[in-house]
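EI: anyone free to look at a 340-residue chain?
SC: sure, send it
EI:
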Amino acid sequence: MLELLFGVLRGAGSRVRHALRRVLLAAGTAGLAWWVATLVLGSPGAIFAPIAAMVSLLDEPGARGRRAFRVIGGVLVGVAVGEVLVRHLDVGPWQPALAVLVAALLVTTASTNPLPIIQAGVAALLVIALHAPQSGFSRLFSALIGGALALLVSQVVITPSPLRMLARAVRPALTPAAEGLRGAAAALRAGSAEDAWRTLERVRRGHFELAEFDTARQSARTLARHSLRGRRQRGEVRALDRRLTGVDPVHTDAVLVARAAHKLLVRRESPVGELPRAVDDLAEALEGFAADPLSADGNRRARDLAEPITHLDPAALPAPSAELATEVRLLAHDLHALTR
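SC: here you go
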């Protein structure tokens, strides 16, 4: 029971750490947007500024620019619809439903993304709820202030390096593969099919990390195109991104190595020659590369470890070990290419 509770708490803590920076950035910008809009427009119209700023900045860095434009568009449509209904129709219980319906349908003429549709509906409802003798333009300007501040913060002031973002994403993506290779080498030395099976299952579950890696690559590409800092790094980001297309094949190769090791041990065969050492060397190469893909020394060390293994001759080995050697050699080739 305690172990389960600690697991839940660790998971919650991990999620909080992952989101903390985004939440702090969104909260700080929302406060700034409220202050600026209050100074310029007064209250209660200022409420739309922190809403636009907060919603725009709660996404991953690469998506914030598009999100800000979607939020601004949705809020502007919702405010306009709400103002028309409040000024020209009687107040009644049907008015909120009509406001949401009209605002959402207007936004869908341009986009089916749920974010601007939701923002349009919420903004229309807020206009009705906050109905006061003030100009509708103040609410529109309030939303523009919040969205503009979000764009300024996310695209100019606090923009992460897309190059470093891409490099940092490599380690968690390749960790299951490296751990799988270490486990496979240990299982081969111990002759344990059970350990080899657990190792194989660990590597197979690495598709979750690969999915997050693909998301990080997309964010880095977006930042390289649309942020000031990213544009300065665009060439380096493109070069690293092209090279990192080799991450998926390397992970697949690691799965095949772990599966071949398990298959060999199930047959109660012992690996021939230096195959366990070769698997360990590939794990070390993978760990060194993943630690910092931008390091020339790390890349060179990984190539030096992988290069001799590319010359393995499976034909010279008996059948069970030959299958494992084939997968090990394929991994060495793909890792050598990844680190060039």
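EI: The CA atoms of residues 61 and 137 lie 30 Å apart.
SC: 👍
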